[in-house]
């Protein structure tokens, strides 16, 4: 990954017994060691662990998890 790449990551949130997974998108603006600064679509920036990011178009963490679970049911 390099600065300027479009990236995605999965945001996990919970309230009570409900867990929500949301796919987020942004543009990589800075890499500092193991952390990346990403500019989100609303213009705000957020620091995210580099290991949590995927290039846009690659399978997301959530998609890989679902695929793994489907494979275990066979």
Describe what you observe in this structure:
The chain has 74 residues and is α+β, with helices and mostly antiparallel strands. The protein has one domain (6-73): SH3 type barrels (Roll). Helices cover 18% and strands 51% of the residues. The chain contains 1 helix and 5 strands; from the N terminus they run βββββα. It has one helix at residues 61-73, and strands at 6-15, 18-32, 35-40, 45-49, 54-55. It has a 5-stranded antiparallel beta sheet, with no helix packed on it. Strand 3 (35-40) and strand 4 form a beta hairpin.
Provide a brief overview of the structure:
This protein is α+β, with helices and mostly antiparallel strands and 74 residues long. The protein contains 1 helix and 5 strands.
- Number of extended strands: 5
Number of helices: 1
How many strands, what sense, and barrel or not for the largest sheet? Answer: 5 strands, antiparallel
Sequence stretches where pLDDT stays below 50 over 5 or more residues: none
Shape assignment: globular
